Recover the amino acids of this structure.
């Protein structure tokens, strides 16, 4: 299905991966949200490419909805959130930048070690693409561990979801419109609720830094 | 014909002669105390006197108090008719099992203790408590001492054990002697003799059996005393016949019966003498020393069983 | 009509009646009287049908299979009623019948206080689930009905929920029964793993090539799991608290049959399912039995809560059943099949005997408690004048449980003794010593049990009333008396028919796979039991002679001293006024034994004094004394386990830092680790 444009796929895949890594490094929330927009657009591009071979109107609408939600609606909520709560500088990490990048590299190597044998069994697909997507998954989970701000963790989960979609795409799995609609709807609701929660947490704790959210008893 | 005669004698032997041996024991004790003592037939006169006195029953007592004496006496007569006395011909497959006889006597103890508690007097209550404690702890030693004979003779029937003993099994002699010693301890406990209980006392510190029958009077008291005498003779006969059964008649010929009777009387007199010596030369133990004695009895029986290969 | 009940429709209709009773009682829960009658009547008829069904199987010796829904292998609901199951169904339904008759009148004192529909619902469910437990053919359906049984009994235990003690007791029961169920599930999982089948019949035939280690683990976890339900020390801690909390007829059922379901499964697993039994299993069961019986009766002696005392006696009797079972297992492992049958026979016989006399005692206790409104024995006294018939039935129950002839308790204890005697006679020295100790334990236990029931009966029914509670008492209703009378009669009959019953029980024993078709050395008639060559006993003779000799002596004495009068007067009072304080108390009665066994029981005593003048301290105003017994198993078993648990929890508490990032890191690390291990 993808023989037509492997390079395009590879480019889009690497955009997803790089934005995942950059989420570790972004110091400011605005920047992190913008990186997320970039990643979502890349995912939208991947879905469109998959449409080229297997056109269906429903799928097109689904893709368009996805792109709108992920690229426009969700970031809108995030920007509003940041503006309301003055979330400026709370996007710090546990490990500093060089060590973070070292860990990212380690993760990529580990993924390659673990999966290189089993991925050969997938016919017709470039193993490298799959490894890329898998690395993105693990890097997104690492974002969840590494960053302290609640907002970054939300973004980490969303990035995780993106990378899973890209993995599914690369592995040649069925892209059903129902699936895409489901994901879209889910993300929409989740983002709305998460933003409400974050507001409430901020009101309660005065900060979104999870290390100081130790005492729930007050 | 002879067998019916033998059966009648078997049943009557214990109840008729038990007061005699109680009298003999008291006489021997009296002699040791340098007194003349009452005649050996005095217990018969006591029973006669009690049967012809009126009875006073407490308001608080129930039917258990009034019927226990009958039940207890009946049970001792029943057991007395089922044990090997002078002849093996009155052998009994239905009632001759030693566990059955021990538990029938336990029924008697049960009702005795209940009647002690029935009147609500202080003496009866603690008498029942002490009696049940001693009885509970005696069971182990009693069953295990007889168990030695069971294992040696491969049967739990008393007549079977006597039969086995008649064959003079010398290799089991150490075991039998140890078991005899343990059985004697249980004998003293069950029949309320020294060092467990003093049958001649009415002090609240020292009485166990006497405390439970304190409230009885008239024919009730007569029956209780007679039952206690029966039990004494039953245990003495068991000690004499089970462990040293030589002399017992194996059939119903008149000569062997006479010989058996004489031998039995001699053996029981020896045992009475032993009990009387014990009662004259030792003191009654403090109540909380008794469990040690009873556990010793159990352990000795266990050793005796272990000696049987 | 009766023939109809002999077929599988008998069991189905009885189960159906229970369901109908449960639902209808719940539906009409607003009308107390109606839901009481509906619930208990359907329980009565359900039990009756099950009784006829199982009785027929026992007599005709033909097992039956009842199919409810037969579908895939996973959800198979057939009930396989072979001789062992039929026997237990018989016990359950016998007690269910009589306790429901009792319950018809007993639950009247819950009218307008608690919801009778709930009681009827859980009661019917309880009995039905017990019948299903002993006949389930499939491990999954067994677990389902086992859980239903535990839950139904839990709700019955906390039925009187306004009392805080009952809730705590129910909670403890809930936890302990689920710990037991966990062990049972472990045992079943191992069985499934070895044979890939859930059906007991198939498992039986496929276990021959599993390792002995696995079989031992199956046996041990089954012993622990079912032992928790049966009440073996040290897993029995729920029993003395839960049985008193339930309504009396439910306590009778719980104590009489529910703990026997544990015994049923132990017999099933040890004698039917597992093919070989090594020696140490039997030794373990024998030791557990000896310890349970001794400690059970010692703790019973120290209790003065009426129902808790009876609960401890249940533990003691389970110990006696285990003694029979343990000796049977030992003989089985040594190949002495005749003695093995004897041991198992004694255990099964004692099962039904205990069920009958324990139910009788609990029903009597319930009668007394319902009339005097207190459970403390120290408040009773003289009840024989107020409740003469209850006292008589309770006396019969006491004699039965103390193993006094001519009642049933003696017959099964005699058989247990005989099976252990066989062990001493024919074994090597170490097992011989073990059997001697076990015999000593049984002898001491039965002696102490007699003492305990002298205390209970004497303090409750004899002498003068010790409190004003007694003065309000009166005889209970006809229905309750009827149940107690029926149970007394059954106790006597089971004792008299010892010969015939031992034939039936040996038939049940040899129907189990490990003892299959072995004809034992027991020849018994209605008149006597005859263990060929070694022992014989005749219960009817004992009974008849007792009555005849007593009558003869009565006549003779009347002839001799009939002319003497009997006058009534007060008890000897040493010149003071007769007060209840002059009588012996239950505490005082058992104080000697507690002092003798103080190494095991660890009694403690605290005295307190309050003086009239705190400075001078010459004249006391009041003094108090507080007696307490420590539970030895909680010192040596539960406390160390608890301490270990808490210490480990303290250490592992540290991973719960409250920080989300750490938690996700744990997930991540585990994921990486698993991938490394399994994919590489």
């Amino acid at each position: 299905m993808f023989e037509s444009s492997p390079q395009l796929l590879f480019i889009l895949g690497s955009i997803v991966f790089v934005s995942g890594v950059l989420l570790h490094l972004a110091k400011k929330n605005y920047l992190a949200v913008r990186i997320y927009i970039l990643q979502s657009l890349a995912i939208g591009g991947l879905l469109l490419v998959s449409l080229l071979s297997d056109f269906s109107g429903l799928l097109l609408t689904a893709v368009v909805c996805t792109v709108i939600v992920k690229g426009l609606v969700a970031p809108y909520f995030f920007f509003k959130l940041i503006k309301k709560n003055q979330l400026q500088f709370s996007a710090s990490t546990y490990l500093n930048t060089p060590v973070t990048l070292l860990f990212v590299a380690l993760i990529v190597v580990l993924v390659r070690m673990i999966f290189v044998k089993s991925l050969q069994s997938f016919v017709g697909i470039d193993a490298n693409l799959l490894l890329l997507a898998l690395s993105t998954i693990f890097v997104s989970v690492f974002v969840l561990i590494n960053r302290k701000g609640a907002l970054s963790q939300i973004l980490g989960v969303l990035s995780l979801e993106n990378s899973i979609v890209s993995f599914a795409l690369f592995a040649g799995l069925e892209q059903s419109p129902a699936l895409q609609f489901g994901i879209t709807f889910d993300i929409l609701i989740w983002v709305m609720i998460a933003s409400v929660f974050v507001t409430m947490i901020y009101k309660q704790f005065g900060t979104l830094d999870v290390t100081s959210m130790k005492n729930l008893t007050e | 014909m002879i067998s019916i005669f033998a059966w009648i004698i078997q049943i009557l032997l214990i109840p008729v002669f038990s007061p005699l041996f109680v009298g003999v024991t008291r006489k021997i004790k009296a002699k040791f105390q340098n007194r003349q003592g009452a005649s050996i037939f005095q217990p018969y006169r006591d029973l006669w006197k009690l049967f012809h006195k009126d009875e006073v029953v407490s308001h608080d007592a129930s039917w258990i108090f009034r019927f226990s004496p009958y039940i207890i006496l009946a049970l001792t007569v029943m057991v007395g008719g089922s044990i090997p006395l002078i002849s093996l011909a009155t052998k009994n497959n239905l009632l001759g099992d030693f566990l059955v006889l021990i538990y029938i006597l336990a029924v008697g103890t049960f009702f005795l203790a209940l009647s002690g508690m029935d009147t609500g007097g202080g003496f009866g209550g603690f008498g029942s408590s002490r009696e049940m404690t001693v009885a509970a702890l005696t069971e182990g030693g009693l069953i295990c001492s007889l168990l030695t004979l069971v294992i040696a003779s491969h049967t739990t029937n008393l007549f079977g054990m006597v039969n086995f003993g008649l064959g003079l099994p010398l290799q089991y002699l150490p075991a039998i002697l140890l078991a005899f010693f343990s059985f004697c301890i249980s004998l003293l406990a069950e029949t309320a003799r020294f060092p467990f209980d003093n049958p001649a006392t009415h002090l609240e510190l020292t009485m166990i059996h006497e405390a439970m029958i304190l409230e009885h009077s008239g024919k009730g008291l007569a029956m209780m005393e007679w039952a206690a005498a029966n039990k004494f003779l039953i245990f003495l006969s068991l000690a004499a016949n089970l462990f040293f059964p030589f002399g017992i008649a194996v059939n119903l010929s008149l000569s062997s019966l006479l010989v058996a009777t004489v031998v039995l009387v001699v053996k029981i007199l020896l045992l009475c003498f032993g009990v009387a010596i014990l009662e004259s030369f030792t003191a009654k133990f403090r109540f909380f020393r008794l469990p040690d004695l009873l556990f010793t009895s159990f352990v000795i029986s266990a050793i005796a069983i272990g000696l049987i290969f | 009509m009766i023939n109809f009940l002999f077929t599988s429709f008998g069991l189905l209709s009885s189960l159906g009646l229970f369901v109908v009773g449960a639902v209808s009682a719940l539906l009409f829960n607003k009308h107390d009287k109606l839901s009481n009658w509906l619930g208990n009547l359907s329980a009565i008829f359900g039990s009756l049908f099950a009784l006829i069904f199982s009785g027929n199987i026992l007599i005709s010796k033909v097992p039956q299979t009842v199919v409810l829904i037969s579908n895939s292998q996973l959800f198979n609901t057939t009930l396989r009623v072979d001789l062992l199951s039929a026997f237990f169904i018989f016990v359950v339904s016998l007690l269910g019948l009589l306790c429901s008759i009792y319950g018809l009148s007993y639950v009247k004192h819950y009218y307008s206080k608690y919801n009778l529909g709930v009681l009827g619902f859980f009661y019917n469910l309880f009995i039905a689930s017990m019948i299903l437990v002993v006949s389930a053919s499939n491990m999954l359906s067994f677990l389902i009905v086992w859980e239903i049984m535990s839950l139904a009994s839990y709700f019955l235990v906390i039925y009187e929920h306004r009392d805080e003690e009952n809730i705590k007791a129910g909670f403890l029961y809930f936890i302990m029964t689920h710990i037991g169920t966990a062990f049972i599930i472990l045992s079943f999982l191992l069985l499934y793993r070895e044979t890939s089948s859930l059906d007991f019949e198939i498992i039986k035939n496929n276990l021959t090539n599993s390792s002995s280690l696995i079989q031992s683990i199956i046996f041990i976890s089954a012993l622990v799991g079912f032992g928790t339900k049966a009440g073996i020390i040290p897993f029995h801690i729920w029993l003395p608290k839960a049985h008193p909390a339930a309504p009396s007829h439910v306590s009778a059922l719980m104590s009489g049959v529910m703990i026997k379901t544990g015994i049923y499964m132990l017999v099933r697993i040890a004698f039917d399912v597992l093919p070989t039994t090594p020696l140490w299993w039997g030794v373990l069961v024998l030791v557990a039995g000896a310890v349970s019986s001794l400690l059970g009766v010692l703790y019973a002696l120290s209790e003065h809560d009426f129902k808790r005392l009876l609960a401890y006696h249940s533990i003691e009797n389970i110990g006696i059943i285990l003694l029979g079972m343990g000796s049977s297992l030992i003989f089985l492992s040594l190949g002495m099949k005749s003695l093995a049958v004897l041991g198992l026979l004694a255990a099964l016989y004692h099962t039904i005997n205990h069920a009958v006399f324990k139910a009788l005692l609990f029903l009597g206790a319930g009668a007394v408690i319902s009339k005097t409104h207190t459970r403390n024995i120290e408040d009773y006294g003289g009840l024989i004048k107020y409740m003469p018939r209850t006292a008589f039935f309770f006396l019969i129950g006491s004699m039965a449980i103390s193993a006094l002839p001519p009642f049933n308790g003696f017959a099964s204890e005699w058989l247990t003794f005989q099976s252990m005697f066989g062990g001493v006679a024919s074994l090597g020295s170490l097992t011989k010593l073990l059997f001697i100790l076990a015999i000593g334990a049984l002898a001491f236990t039965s002696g102490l049990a007699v003492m305990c029931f002298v205390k209970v009966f004497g303090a409750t029914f004899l002498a003068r009333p010790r409190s004003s509670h007694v003065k309000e008492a009166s005889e209970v209703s006809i229905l309750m008396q009827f149940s107690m009378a029926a149970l007394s009669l059954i106790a006597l009959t089971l004792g008299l028919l010892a010969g015939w019953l031992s034939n039936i029980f040996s038939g049940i024993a040899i129907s189990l796979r490990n003892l299959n078709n072995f004809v034992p050395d027991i020849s018994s008639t209605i008149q006597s039991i005859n263990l060929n060559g070694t022992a014989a006993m005749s219960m009817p003779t004992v009974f008849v002679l007792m009555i005849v000799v007593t009558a003869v002596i009565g006549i003779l004495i009347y002839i001799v001293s009939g002319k003497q009068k009997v006058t009534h007067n007060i008890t000897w009072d040493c010149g003071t006024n007769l007060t209840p304080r002059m009588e012996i108390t239950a505490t005082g009665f058992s104080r000697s034994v507690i002092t003798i066994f103080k190494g095991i029981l660890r009694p403690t005593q605290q005295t307190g004094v309050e003086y009239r003048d705190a400075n001078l301290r010459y004249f006391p105003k009041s003094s108090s004394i507080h007696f307490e017994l420590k539970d030895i198993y909680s010192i040596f078993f539960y406390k160390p386990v608890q301490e270990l648990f808490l210490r480990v929890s303290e250490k592992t508490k540290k991973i719960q830092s409250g920080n989300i990032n750490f938690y996700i890191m744990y997930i991540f690390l585990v994921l990486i680790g698993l991938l490394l291990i399994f994919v590489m």
